[in-house]
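Here is a typical protein record:
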Amino acid sequence: MSDQRKVLTIVVQATTALDPESEIYRYIMRASLLWENSYSIEVVDQQLDVHRLRELVQSLDSKYVIFMDSSHIIRPDYLEKMLEYLNQNSVFLAEPKIYTGALPQTDIIKENDLDYYYSRDTDIFGIAFNTSRLSHILDVFRDIDIHSLYIAYRLYWGIEKITPLEAGYSVSSVTKVANGLKINRGIKRILPVASTGSLEMRLYILRLVILFLRGVRQKNSTDISIIHLKEIINFYRLDEIYKYSEALHSFETGFLIWLADSVQDQYLYKQLSDSDIYLEFNRKSPGEDNFLLYSLDFAGSEVEVYKSYLPKEQRASFNNPKSYDFYSSPITPDSTIIFFDRPMQADDNAEHLYAYFIKNYPNYHNAYFALNPKSKDWERLLSLGFNLIPIFNEEFYEKFLISDLVVSSQIYSLNYRGKSLANSRFVYLQHGVQLNDMTDWVLSKFFDVFVSTGKVEYDYLSALAPKETINSGLPRFETLAKKVGETKHLLFMPTWRFNLQNSSTEQFMESDYFKSINNIFTDENLLEFLEENDKELIVQLHPNTAKRSGCFNFSDRVKLSDLSYSDAISAAEFIFTDYSSAVIDGSFVGIPIAYYQWDAEEFFNDQPYDARLSYEDDAMGPLFTQHQQIINHIISGKYKEIDQKYEQRRAVFFEGVELSKINSRIVERMLSL
């Protein structure tokens, strides 16, 4: 048996050492109890592309090949089910049910669940390819990107229908949905043109084109031509099925519709109270109410994308009695208004604004706060008199349908019976302050009001959304300022590292991330300082890090926080972090802050967004890169000294925000919509 040809080769892409105790490796090895001689594992230590893939596949002797990434997630029985199926069948392709986020509890997909097919990741990962057939495709299509390979394979072999196996596989990341595809330079076409009558395949192609366009916005240029794009869009009639992409990628959907019919150069993007927002393509004569967003190079042909504010009377459906205008009903004390933060967690800007609103506007008796009833905040908010409704259930969506306003610190894709945030009022409070260049993200979202904090952020955001941006400051700042009083503790708020997402406990404890944080906790000089001055170092861990809190050496003087976010900050006399924007809250209310960045170069290389501000030139507290530097800053007492350089930066950063008027300004603006 051992001399026979293997059924399957598993190629694991692992840019760092593959942890033998990681979940994905354990689940792969578990199948060896029954299928030890049927499969083998190969680990590659670099990102795969078509050229590397061609060499690799041609060297394999197994009948089938599966590609995985060490960061992905599989069910415990994923490989066993796949091997059982492959060993009994002669197939071109076998695939599990594929997801982009966490694996659901059950793999229930309806026969015609077209939303699943559109949202399903279409990379090569998790799928069993017939090795010889894949090798042939790699020889035929030498000029496509690896992201297109799965679709090209199915188109070439005419595989129009696949019944997924009862085995879940997840790429465990929504980054691609947010940032799009990065098609390598030199690639000159997305896909071959091959007839298909499958709606499922057309949805996959729609997703591929949409994510390609999303990626081009970040790179600003591509070697793929407009002519080829139009050919793909028109051949597969993608403009007939754009409704599946519209909710998550409205910007790219408008681009696609223009490419399908370049005569129509305007796309209605978002309705507002007194005007509408349009995307305009290759506009000949820019005016006062429009401005250039992007100038994109498609294989030497330039496409300019503008944002325009036009009178709502110009909207094609404005006088159509069959098209309901969700702005036609003004906001009054009888209006239904919905506030919410995260589904499982309140204590953010929506909670604080809601508390202000119901206290100062008691005649608005249909104001609701939405939250999951299982949240630890549910009973607390009930005791405060909040009018709670469960979030994202049928009652919530019925309330959303009749509401005149939604107010939230988070942006979710709400869409119910023709109503969405694209055609109704939405106030975005933000969770924090934008320190990175989030231009592409901001331009992809729907909002009537975007809350900013201070002149620095306002100047950045108002260049993208001049009519929507307000410089008020965050609602939780008002609450925070009222809590600040006598303090004893220092506060450390480290962020998370995504490359540790699927690491084992042992691998986590070997990381520089763990060691750098734990070295703070165990530093003898710091512990002596805390003891002598009767102080504590309170540690507010990121939720992903908190799951590993048992790994750290906490003590009588270094404690894991059990306080709420606002209580932890308001009771601190000094706050430091690596990169979290949370320390800005402390700086706003006059608490000294600092940054300790032990891995700056590596950290910023892994980030999907570029830094917009400099920690060295713009931060409102000192920056340290060495362990002893942050320790000396604390034990010397320098953290308590007022430095005029940082005071001046604070004044510039928060210019325009009046503490006593934060909530009132936001409410005044939202009720005027």
User: Anything to note?
Assistant: The mean pLDDT is 92. The first helix runs from residue 23 to 30. The CA atoms of residues 233 and 658 lie 50 Å apart. DSSP finds 28 helices and 28 strands in the chain.
